[in-house]
């Protein structure tokens, strides 16, 4: 298995992520594109000392960005993981 630091990049703190955290005990993570659900589950359990119930992943497309001409470029795509924790477990975001 890869090291946990090479699977989970950052935790995503957005309005939607905060709402999911408060209501459904779900946390959003930005992960490396080649990580699978089993690796993500093991990495989150190892890094934060919690029990993971479920992992959902999705690939996000990069956004179109206009250059100084009429050409468009694209930012890099990335992968997001929605991790559901068991009842009673939380991750301290501070």
List the helices and strands and how they pair.
Blueprint (H helix, E strand, L loop, with lengths): L7 E4 L3 H10 L1 E6 L5 H12 L3 E9 L3 E3 L5 E3 L3 E8 L9
Antiparallel strand pairs: 1-2, 2-6, 3-6, 4-5
Please describe what this structure looks like:
The chain has helices at 15-24, 37-48; strands at 8-11, 26-31, 52-60, 64-66, 72-74, 78-85. The protein has 2 helices and 6 strands; from the N terminus they run βαβαββββ. The chain starts with 7 loop residues before the first strand and ends in a 9-residue tail after the last strand. The model has no long low-confidence stretch (mean pLDDT 92). The protein has one domain: 2-Layer Sandwich (Alpha-Beta Plaits). The strands form 2 sheets. The protein has a 4-stranded antiparallel sheet. Strands 4-5 form a two-stranded antiparallel ribbon. A hairpin with a 5-residue loop joins β4 and β5. The chain is an alpha+beta fold and 94 residues long. The protein is globular, with a radius of gyration of 15 Å.
Features:
single chain, 94 residues, alpha+beta, Alpha-Beta Plaits, four-stranded antiparallel beta sheet, two-stranded antiparallel sheet, 2 helices
Question: What would you say about this model in short?
Answer:
With 94 residues, the protein is an alpha+beta fold.
User: What sequence of helices (H) and strands (E) makes up the elements?
Assistant: EHEHEEEE
CATH domain class name: Alpha Beta
Task: Sketch the major β-sheet.
Answer: 4 strands, antiparallel
CATH topology: Alpha-Beta Plaits
**Multimeric state:** single chain
Output the radius of gyration.
Answer: 15 Å
Low-pLDDT windows of residues = none
**How many structural domains does the protein architecture include?**
1
Overall shape: globular
Mean pLDDT: 92
Q: Name the helicity range.
A: 10-25%
Task: Please identify which CATH superfamily we are dealing with.
Answer: RRM (RNA recognition motif) domain
Biggest sheet strand order reads 1-2-6-3
Q: How many helical elements?
A: 2
CATH architecture: 2-Layer Sandwich
């Amino acid at each position: 298995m890869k090291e946990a630091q090479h699977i989970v990049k950052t935790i995503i703190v957005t309005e939607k992520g905060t709402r999911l955290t408060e209501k459904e005990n779900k946390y959003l993570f930005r992960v490396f594109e080649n990580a699978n659900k089993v690796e993500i589950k093991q990495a989150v359990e190892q890094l934060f000392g919690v029990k993971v119930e479920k992992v959902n992943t999705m690939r996000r497309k990069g956004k179109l960005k206009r250059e100084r001409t009429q050409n468009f470029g694209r930012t890099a795509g990335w992968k997001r993981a929605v991790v559901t924790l068991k009842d009673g477990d939380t991750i301290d975001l501070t």
